[in-house]
Specification:
- The complex is a heterodimer of chains A (about 350) and B (about 525).
- Chain A has about 350 residues and is mainly α.
- Chain A has a domain of about 160 residues.
- Chain A is about 60% helix and about 0% strand.
- Chain A has 15 helices and no strands.
- In chain A, helix 1 packs antiparallel against helix 10.
- The longest helix of chain A has 24 residues.
- By secondary structure, chain B is an alpha/beta fold.
- Among the domains of chain B are: about 170 residues, Rossmann fold, CATH 3.40.50.11540; about 110 residues, no CATH class.
- A five-stranded mixed sheet of chain B has the order 13-12-16-14-15, sandwiched between helices. In chain B, strands 1-7-6-3 form a four-stranded antiparallel sheet, with no helix packed on it. In chain B, strands 10-9-8-11 form a four-stranded parallel sheet, with helices on both faces.
- In chain B, strand 9, helix 5 and strand 10 form a beta-alpha-beta unit.
- Classes of the chains: A mainly alpha (about 350), B alpha/beta (about 525).
């Protein structure tokens, strides 16, 4: 009798990349629903455009590279598109998610060798390209809860024409972080600024809820062991820690740690973007430093930088540092003298 | 009783044993049929009586289906033993005798590694503070140690006492798994019946790979065996519970190691069970005894599902280290899905019991950067398979590490061989140089001797000269004497001339003749 032979271990595999990606997408769902609820159909349009572009671009490049197009089913390209879309403002024109997604997949991911080989987070690379190239289109945020219907949104996204008696100025609104930045420049105190209706019970109105839901999804991911705790904890600690120091020093100029971690893309970044395994640190200790670094950089960019939020830049900067951090944070091997 | 027993000469770590029998020899149960070679080696004994049929290469349990030299015994079914030994109290035996009995019985670590037991015991070479008896199964599915403890608690405990007596540890722990309550109560009952001091029973959680020596020591004591070191380095010895029972048999009954408990299981076999099998029993025979294969059997594994290796054929013998035979169906253990690119998720790092960075090892092994792989402690990898099990990209990581290790070994072997060749070459050059120098020295000596002869030549010349002078002087003297003949008388002259004439005539006559 002849038997088949394989290398050990023989137990059936416990996990797979598509399953991991599906879980990440699932974990994004609560935050995404909340985001859509507050900012309208524009979010859905962005999601669809970015995802479809990502999938088409990935398939095209795989075909050009003569790789099996079935690799598409691992879900990584879809996730890149979704993460990029979640970073975009709802009133942005249709070509913004398309261009961003194309850059993310073709340049930032596939040109480096595809899944597993990209040194930078593709979604953030795509976002930063858009942010630098089209700064105006990336400020088109509406006030939470003040959005157009589905049909109007589609017409606007593809033609740029608004419904009658509607102006872009009336629709758009500064984000809480924008308003802090500009109004601090007008030498208002933080408590005055936070008295405006843009702010909610503990962070930006609406934004606090989006962040909360992303936090819930992220905690579930940790529980399911799709991501490890070190990067999110490191990043939130880094952000909250430095915010605490400055807030304690001057609460009129520097917002509270709570505000910081529930604002902008903090939670999305901590649990879904910084944890992209391919471009992050891989050693347990390294992941903590990686997260801390992102947190501190986010604060620095938010507070003193030229942009209202800094998650994308912080993640890309730490991506650069990841191999070096890995090199210096090798764990002590079992039985080795500490 | 299987009709044929096949005993590979190498069933342990170290040098293969040297065969002591010839084809056609009659052997009795327990007769030594191969002896140990060197310190790290173990002998073999006939598991039953019969005739040596052949000493030849046979397929053995090996991942590559290799053949190895084996002694093939045709059993006669009589199971004749040699002389029956009298039972002894081991306290009466000197330590050397105890170690010698363990060595003579060919006992090796029955947990799977097969390291010769007497070497591990070190026989009091080092002070030992903790003796651990390992009854924790190596892997899921395997149940041979559990079974053994349940059925032979008395032998196990007695074996522990013997080991305790040999090693003299300050503490002795028998480690069992959480799920082994029947075994636990059997051991407890046995311990309660004696008045033992310093033997305690500890449960450890059923987490793979707690059955590994290093992992078990860490679980029990929190201490880590030094990387590349041995438990004895931190004053500990760990022995498998099966080994302990074998020690009992060797010391008390003077029976060598000729059988072991083997788990035969998996969904591919009709009636999974544990067997006490003679060493050398064909695996096919054990499968038949377990009711044969099911229709859907797909793979045959020797060892457990995590570290065991798949064999292509069941015509291989049970060895001292074979703890499990696992016949599995495709549903139970499907073929591994194709490997996908590593997404650097580091699940392997979190799973690794040796705290290695499997992902980095993988990159280095893959790119054949063997120095870097060694720098990342490749040789601390115990090949437990945890990393490959959790890998979402299904990369056969362990295979990469094995390959890298084998590559490094062969490279080291080559280095050694070339070092040896270089040393030989250098030695030859040195020898040639030495010979040349010696020859030169000899020549110089000779030359010197010749130079010395030159001096004596001068004296010779002088001597010759002196001699010549003497002769000359003598000649002169004789000349002087001859001068006396010049003044001859005419008569004398006539006589002389006549004599000369006669002489001339006679000489011409003789010339004419």
């Amino acid at each position: 009798m002849e038997f088949r032979t394989y290398s050990s271990p023989h137990l059936p595999v416990s996990d797979s990349v598509p399953v991991m990606m599906q879980r990440v997408l699932l974990a994004l769902l609560p935050g995404t629903i909340c985001f859509t609820w507050l900012f309208g159909a524009g979010v859905i349009i962005n999601l669809l455009l970015a995802s479809i572009t990502a999938l088409v671009a990935e398939a095209a490049v795989l075909k050009l590279r003569k790789r099996p197009v079935t690799t598409l089913l691992d879900g990584s390209a879809l996730l890149t598109g979704v993460l990029l879309a979640l970073a975009l403002p709802p009133l942005t024109p249709w070509w913004i998610p398309v261009v961003g997604s194309l850059f993310a997949i073709v340049i930032a991911k596939q040109l480096y060798g595809g899944l597993g080989y990209n040194p930078f987070n593709p979604a953030m690379a795509g976002y930063v390209v858009l942010l630098i190239s089209f700064p105006l289109e990336l400020t088109l945020w509406s006030a939470p809860g003040m959005h157009m219907g589905l049909v109007d949104s589609v017409i606007y996204a593809f033609t740029g024409s608004l419904p009658e008696q509607q102006t872009l100025d009336a629709l758009t609104s500064a984000t809480p972080m924008d308003s802090i930045k500009t109004r601090l420049g007008l030498s208002e105190t933080l408590s005055e600024i936070q008295g405006s209706p843009l702010f909610g019970s503990f962070a930006g109105a609406g934004w606090e809820w989006i962040n909360l839901w992303f936090l819930v999804g992220g905690l579930w991911l940790i529980k399911m062991r799709v991501i490890q705790w070190q990067i999110p904890v490191g990043m939130l600690l880094g952000l909250a820690g430095i915010a605490f120091v400055f807030h304690a020093f001057d609460p009129d100029t520097y917002s509270s740690p709570l505000f910081q971690v529930f604002s902008g893309a903090a939670m999305l970044g901590a649990f879904f973007i910084a944890t992209d395994p391919v471009s992050a640190c891989t050693t347990p200790r390294g992941r903590i430093y990686f997260g801390l670094g992102i947190g501190v950089l986010v604060y620095i960019i938010r507070t003193w930088g030229g942009y209202p939020d800094g998650v994308a830049f912080a993640v890309l900067l730490m991506n650069m540092a990841a191999p070096t951090i890995d090199h210096y944070t090798r764990p002590r091997v079992f039985g080795e003298k500490g | 009783m299987p009709p044929l027993l096949v005993l590979p000469l190498q069933q342990h770590i170290g040098e293969p044993a040297e065969c002591l029998v010839q084809p056609g020899d009659q052997v009795y149960r327990g007769q030594p049929i191969a002896r140990q070679v060197g310190d790290i080696s173990a002998g073999l004994h006939a598991p039953t009586s019969g005739t040596v049929l052949a000493i030849e290469d046979r397929p053995v349990a090996h991942p590559s289906g290799l053949q190895a030299p084996c002694i093939v015994i045709e059993t006669d079914g009589e199971d004749r033993g040699g002389k029956t030994a009298t039972r002894v109290d081991y306290h009466d035996l000197p330590l050397d005798e105890l170690c010698d009995r363990i060595r003579a019985a060919g006992i090796v670590g029955l947990g799977g590694a097969g390291f010769p037991t007497q070497v591990k015991l070190g026989c009091n070479a080092r002070p030992i503070k903790l003796l651990i008896i390992n009854a924790v199964e190596c892997e899921p599915y395997i149940a041979c140690d559990n079974r053994l403890v349940q059925e032979r608690a008395a032998e196990v405990i007695e074996g522990v006492r013997i080991l305790q007596y040999i090693v003299q540890p300050t503490e002795c722990i028998i480690a069992i798994e959480d799920g082994m309550s029947a075994a636990e109560s059997a051991l407890q009952a046995e311990l309660a019946s004696g008045n033992d001091t310093g033997i305690s029973l500890t449960r450890v959680p059923e987490i793979y790979p707690s059955g590994g020596e290093r992992q078990l020591i860490k679980v029990l004591t929190g201490e880590e065996v030094p990387s590349q070191g041995f438990p004895a380095d931190i004053g500990m010895i760990c022995q498998n519970v099966g080994t302990t029972a074998a020690v009992y048999n060797a010391v008390i009954k003077q029976q060598p190691l000729v059988s072991r408990i083997v788990t035969v299981t998996g969904e591919g076999v009709a009636q999974p069970q544990n067997f006490e099998a003679l060493i050398g029993t064909p695996v096919s025979q054990l499968i038949a005894a377990a009711g044969g294969y099911n229709a859907h059997v797909d793979r045959l594994l020797i060892g457990g599902p995590m570290m065991g290796y798949a064999v292509a054929n069941d015509d291989i013998p049970v060895t001292k280290t074979m703890n499990c035979i696992l016949a599995v169906t495709r549903d139970e253990m499907p073929a591994p899905p194709p490997a996908e690119p590593c997404i650097r998720c580091s699940k392997c790092t979190d799973a690794c019991p040796a705290d290695l960075l499997p992902q980095q090892l993988y990159w280095y092994a893959r790119s054949n950067n063997l120095d870097a792989a060694q720098d990342y402690n490749l040789f601390d990898c115990i090949e437990c398979g945890c990393c490959a099990y959790v890998c979402p990209s299904h990369i056969p990581l362990v295979q990469y590490y094995r390959h890298a290790k084998a590559e490094i070994w062969s490279r080291e072997q080559q280095t050694r061989a070339s070092d040896f060749a270089r040393q030989r070459h250098e030695a030859r050059l040195e020898r040639l140089e030495r010979i040349k120098q010696e020859r030169a020295a000899r020549m110089a000596k000779k030359k010197q001797a010749l130079a010395g002869e030159d001096d004596s030549g001068a004296s010779k010349k002088a001597a010759i000269q002196a001699a010549l002078d003497r002769v000359k002087r003598k000649k002169e003297q004789s000349h002087v004497t001859a001068k006396n003949t010049e003044n001859l008388t005419a008569e004398q002259q006539q006589l002389i001339d006549a004599a000369d004439k006669r002489r001339r005539e006679s000489s011409t006559q003789s010339a004419d003749d």
